[in-house]
């Protein structure tokens, strides 16, 4: 289960600075191994051996001068639903404001742990100002003065925050059963697909939800395969509220994606691969998820024996260097290839957990590298000596060589292609790193 921390607070108190600080530290640790997702509102962090995600809800409040209570409610509601812990950021510099009080009133309705983070405590003198926020009476926890710009005070805060996480977080999930998320634009047929899985064979094993606000993991045993579909049904209902569709569907995608191994990006055959679909695919890749595309409503397409190949080719072009993503054509309505879609998702999961022995890697790849060695740079020859797959959750291959810094992107792509030709990593992002030897 994902550990999630939400940052709330009025504009300009330093939420994004704080967010970046939390996420940067993890990034520094991880950068050379797995590459880490980072965007404005959502990122990964680590403290004390626990992994968690951080949502900066700040950007969702529009208009920094005129923040209406409805907006605050919307922001905070999101935090309450998604997070294990809420960090309410205030500003020591400005002291307690009316808007802070409004936020506090909304937060009071929650039963999740709340910490008041008194930011801009740049000096000991400023830190004393933090005491003022006790008058909110919002939380039994200590108030933590911090300075997001320098990071001072954040360690003490995080020591406390992580005590609320039930486990280590997503970096260390239970092995074995593939968790599959079905994502896609509204109306492509996601619910119909779930119902088709549910309806026919009626063999759900469990339907467990930690709390109503967590992602729901439904475990299936169908067609001889064990798998889990991750979903956030509670949020889905709210997506029916019109103006919030985009807002909630993004949050929903993040949460389901976070809790899954493989994402099925469902697209509408009559519309093709659209930019939103590409965004979901990129999000999956950045988060090291297995990815496949399910082109649904295939029954609505007028076709001959060449149509499928033609559409596949067009999609491949849009995928560019991510051509390793498999595409399957289905009709949920006519129950066409529904089983194969699940089978493919499970296969992608198997590929994702594939381990190649060092001897096999070297036997197959070193001769290819010998044929096409990395181009010499500044008159220096680059010699790759051996290759090994790192013991990571996602496929990462370390190439040991004399001058790692001299190898350029095109050669990395060459190596990735050779890896994919020799071993089945269909649907799986793979990473290549160079190490000095
Ligand atoms: N002195 C001081 N300034 C800070 C600190 N942290 C953030 N700031 C400044 O406060 C201002 C607002 O910071 P942001 O991180 O953009 O604030 P925010 O809460 O994300 O603002 P919105 O995006 O409007 O919601 C910036 O000028 C920051 O440089 C700090 O620890 N000390
Ligand atoms: N022709 C055809 N229609 C389909 C197919 N799959 C789903 N539909 C129809 O498409 C419509 C939308 O299906 P849903 O399952 O509600 O789509 P969804 O992706 O869950 O939609 P949201 O809940 O809005 O995200 C419904 O009218 C379905 O009956 C299919 O394979 N072929």
TrEMBL record:
Signal peptide: none annotated. Residues 3-169, 178-353 form the EngA-type G domain. GO terms for molecular function: GTP binding; ribosome binding. GTP 1 binds at residues 9-16, 56-60, 119-122. Keywords: GTP-binding, Nucleotide-binding, Repeat, Ribosome biogenesis. CDD domains: EngA1, EngA2. One of its GO terms (biological process) is ribosome biogenesis. InterPro entries: G_ENGA (IPR031166), GTP-bd (IPR006073), GTPase_Der (IPR016484), KH_dom-like (IPR032859), KH_dom-like_a/b (IPR015946), P-loop_NTPase (IPR027417), Small_GTP-bd (IPR005225). The keyword Transmembrane helix does not apply. GTP 2 binds at residues 184-191, 231-235, 296-299. Coiled coil: none annotated. Belongs to the TRAFAC class TrmE-Era-EngA-EngB-Septin-like GTPase superfamily. EngA (Der) GTPase family. GTPase that plays an essential role in the late steps of ribosome biogenesis. Associates with the 50S ribosomal subunit. This is GTPase Der. It comes from Mongoliitalea lutea.
């Amino acid at each position: 289960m994902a550990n999630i921390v939400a940052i709330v607070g009025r504009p300009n108190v330093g939420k994004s600075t704080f967010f970046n600080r939390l996420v940067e530290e993890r990034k520094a640790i991880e950068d050379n191994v797995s590459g880490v997702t980072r965007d404005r509102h959502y990122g990964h962090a680590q403290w004390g051996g626990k992994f968690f995600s951080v949502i900066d809800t700040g950007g969702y409040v529009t208009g920094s001068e005129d923040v209406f209570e409805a907006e605050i409610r919307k922001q905070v509601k999101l935090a309450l639903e998604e997070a294990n812990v809420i960090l309410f950021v205030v500003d020591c510099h400005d002291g307690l404001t009316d808007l802070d009080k409004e936020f506090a009133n909304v937060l009071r309705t929650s039963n999740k742990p709340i910490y008041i983070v008194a930011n801009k405590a740049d000096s000991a003198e400023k830190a004393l100002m933090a005491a003022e926020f006790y008058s909110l009476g919002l939380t039994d926890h200590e108030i933590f003065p911090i300075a997001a710009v320098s990071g001072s005070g954040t360690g003490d805060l995080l020591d406390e925050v992580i005590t609320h996480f039930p486990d280590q977080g997503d970096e260390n999930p239970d092995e074995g059963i593939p968790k599959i998320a079905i994502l896609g634009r509204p109306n492509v047929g996601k619910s119909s697909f779930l119902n088709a899985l549910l309806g026919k064979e009626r063999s759900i094993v469990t339907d467990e939800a930690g709390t109503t606000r967590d992602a729901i993991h439904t475990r299936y045993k169908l067609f001889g395969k064990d798998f889990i579909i991750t979903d956030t049904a509670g949020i889905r209902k709210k997506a029916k509220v019109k103006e919030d569709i985009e807002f909630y569907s993004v949050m929903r995608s993040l949460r389901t994606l976070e809790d899954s191994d493989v994402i099925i990006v469902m697209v509408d055959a009559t519309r093709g691969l659209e930019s939103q679909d590409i965004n979901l695919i990129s999000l999956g890749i950045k988060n090291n998820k297995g990815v496949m595309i399910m082109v649904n409503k295939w029954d609505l397409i007028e076709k001959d024996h060449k149509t499928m190949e033609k559409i596949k080719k067009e999609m491949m072009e849009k995928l560019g260097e991510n051509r390793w993503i498999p595409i399957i054509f289905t009709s949920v309505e006519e129950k066409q290839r529904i089983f194969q879609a699940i089978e493919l998702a499970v296969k992608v999961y198997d590929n994702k957990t594939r381990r190649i022995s060092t001897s096999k890697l070297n036997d197959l790849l070193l001769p290819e590298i010998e044929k096409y060695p990395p181009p010499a740079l500044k008159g220096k020859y680059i010699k790759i000596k051996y290759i090994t797959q790192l013991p990571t959750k996602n496929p990462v291959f370390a190439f040991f060589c004399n001058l790692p810094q001299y190898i350029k992107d095109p050669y990395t792509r060459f190596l990735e292609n050779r890896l994919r030709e020799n071993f089945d990593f269909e649907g799986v992002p793979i990473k290549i790193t160079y190490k000095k030897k």
